[in-house]
Amino acid sequence: MKRLIAVLPASLLLTVINTAAPEVPAAHSGPRVQYNDLIALQPATLPPHSIVLTIEDGDTLESVLLDGGVDRLGAAALIREAGRSFDLRRLKPGDLVRFHYQRDESVDSVEIKILGWGELHAVATDAGFTVATQPAVIHELETTVSARIDSSLYEALMTAGEGPQLAQQIVDIFQWDIDFFALQRGDSFSLVVSKRFSGSDPMGYGPVVAARFNHGGQTFEAFRQEMPDGRAGYYTRKGMPLRKQFLRAPLQFTRITSKFSKSRWHPILQCFRPHHGVDYGAPVGTPVMTTADGVVVEAGRKSGDGNYIRVRHTMRIDTYYLHLSKFAGGIKRGAKVTQGQVIGYVGATGLATGPHLDYRVNDNGVWLDPLKLKSISPDPLPVALTAAFHQNVLNLSPKLAAATPQVAEFASRRRALF
């Protein structure tokens, strides 16, 4: 466990003890003060001092308290009282614990800084500890994030000094128009988003309010608009929704291992046969989403398909999800599902050489290539919101091309130890 220790030292004072009458030094005599005459005074009592411990992997609050000098009974009392105000399971590496000591080296108070949550202040009493809380003050700072893709969306964000949480937001916004399995070197994007801080500690991001993505020579834009009922969506600058009837893919951040084909060599059956879907390679347990609103009409197991789900979206169109390891909670025949809802998890059940999802689309008995599926857009922005929306577009458009380096500088400051 790493420690930052601050202790105020005491001085060691030397003096001469001699009660005899003054002497007149004699010529050629030895030194008047002998070594045995030097007596060291006892050090002054140490004033109160503190140490700060950092919680690391494998630590428990009890182990940290014991390392800081709290006895087991005191640690149990502090943990019990702290648990009334805070879920101690949320403690994580990087959180800080400061111990304050009396002159006799006993702990008289403990302060715990939980990043993003606040602080717990525990004061020792004859009966144990009394605990008070101080919630963190979260503030937001709007900024523009811009990056160019060289290898991947994730790497582009990390190179720009941003967190991976933004990658998920970008995919969620543009998933109907951009194939994120086929990003190209030189693609670029810019976002207007609020960064959240607790003091100087970065705590993540608010929702992206405007975005521009250049992909394969095309430019896609998105502007966020909140509805009166609290829901929010993304629209083009003309007020057309980005959300489509079907998602482009039922998984995120995976790879296509086999495409739709009228004749494909089957690696297990050792023959050519049609492949009516698209295979997405992904680790076992990767969440699988339904690509549109609908009702589950089948959720079971077949010898070749393994664990599978069939969702009906319209009177004509069904989607199929094959080779699942298991179903999500509540997924059974008759269950209503919404676009993007997790319905199962990638597996290798049935005739499968490895973990993957076989995703299929059927239109009234005819198999469709999911990668060529034409999506239908929902209704445009309500007329009552158009004036406010267009004004918002005018305000945000210049910011998509602006940079705010002071935000990155602010976020990079060292965290204060309380």
Outline the secondary-structure elements.
Elements: E1 3-6, E2 14-16, E3 38-40, E4 50-54, H1 61-67, H2 72-82, E5 96-101, E6 107-114, E7 118-125, E8 128-135, E9 138-148, H3 153-159, H4 165-174, E10 188-198, E11 201-205, E12 210-215, E13 218-226, E14 232-235, E15 255-258, E16 261-266, E17 271-275, E18 277-281, E19 287-289, E20 294-302, E21 306-312, E22 317-327, E23 336-337, E24 342-346, E25 356-363, E26 366-368, H5 383-396, H6 405-411
Antiparallel strand pairs: 1-4, 2-3, 4-5, 5-6, 6-7, 7-8, 9-10, 10-11, 10-12, 12-13, 13-14, 15-18, 16-17, 18-25, 19-24, 20-21, 20-23, 21-22, 22-24, 22-25, 25-26
Helix pairs in contact: 1-2
Report on this model:
By secondary structure, this protein is mainly beta. It has three domains: 3-135, Roll (Nuclear Transport Factor 2, Chain: A), CATH 3.10.450; 139-243 and 406-411, Nuclear Transport Factor 2, Chain: A; 255-372, Glucose Permease (Domain IIA) (Distorted Sandwich). It contains six helices and 26 strands. It has helices at residues 61-67, 72-82, 153-159, 165-174, 383-396, 405-411; strands at residues 3-6, 14-16, 38-40, 50-54, 96-101, 107-114, 118-125, 128-135, 138-148, 188-198, 201-205, 210-215, 218-226, 232-235, 255-258, 261-266, 271-275, 277-281, 287-289, 294-302, 306-312, 317-327, 336-337, 342-346, 356-363, 366-368. The strands form five sheets. Strands 15, 18, 19, 20, 21, 22, 23, 24, 25 and 26 form a ten-stranded antiparallel beta sheet that branches. A hairpin with a 3-residue loop joins strand 20 and strand 21 (306-312). Helix 1 (61-67) crosses helix 2 (72-82). The two termini are 18 Å apart. Mean pLDDT is 82; it is low at 1-29 and 404-418.
